[in-house]
Amino acid sequence: MDTPPVGRRWPVTLQHRDVTLRPMRLRDAAEWERVRRRNASWLRPWEATLPPNSSPGPPTYGALVRNLNRQARQGRMLPWLIVFQPEEHSRSNRPVLAGQLTVSGIVGGSAASGQIGYWIDQRLAGRGLTPTAVAMAVDYCFRTLQLHRIEVAIRPENAPSLRVVEKLGFRSEGSRPRYLHIDGDWRDHLIFALNGDEVGDGLLDRWDHRREQDQIRSAGESVQDAESTEVPEPVEGRPGEHPEPAERHTEHTRPIEHPEPDERPEPVEGQEPNAHAS
């Protein structure tokens, strides 16, 4: 049996700009349950479910957190919350629970791999939080845990999740029929993967560069649209003057890794919910 890879001891927190990945805590219960209830219909089609005659999972949030953290301390998974820090000038700049990202099935040895799953609050979808969180997690797995391969399984109907792996440059590896039990039945999934030697200086740097280029392109299109709608009065003898667009400076940072105080709860046996990006 493959053993878990050697890496930083759990708990681990990663931070990049306005996105933080941190461990689930018992005191997150009220906010976690509130976000989950609000997003029930948004998440239901992609939620992992248990096949008939399966043993039930942890019955409470507390049991879930203890179970996930126990497996994390064993090096078999990384159960993170996605936390978003709004801009300072927003009405409330308190960090908010934006979603969840889990690296599960972590093994070392000849496989040296893991699988990533995630969900995001519908209110915060489309802001680039999920690709940023996935890139942070992938870089941690490749650099710190020294994994070779990271995989994501996505239902063909899940267009938002497909856009995440497309933006990050995951390689498509085809489909697996009736691969995971999702929303009450066995569902087909598309498989996407990255190997450590495919990301160069890091997936997060690549994603940041793409976002910067998209912002510059969008700004240029906005300038062109504005110029095409303006019809200035002609001035004889003066060529049209068009100011150069201002330079955009985007700060590049890497995740900051620092340990969280370990609550060391008692282990609770049970099956954690799959956090696949189904």
Automatic annotation (TrEMBL):
Q: Which residues form the N-acetyltransferase domain?
A: 19-197
Could you tell me where the Basic and acidic residues compositional bias lies? 235-267
Q: Does the keyword Iron-sulfur apply?
A: no
Region annotated Disordered, chain positions: 214-278
PROSITE patterns reported in the protein's UniProt record: GNAT (PS51186)
| One Pfam family hit | Acetyltransf_3
- Superkingdom is Bacteria
- Recorded family membership: Belongs to the acetyltransferase family. RimJ subfamily.
**What name does this protein carry?**
Ribosomal-protein-alanine N-acetyltransferase
Q: Which organism is it from?
A: Microlunatus soli
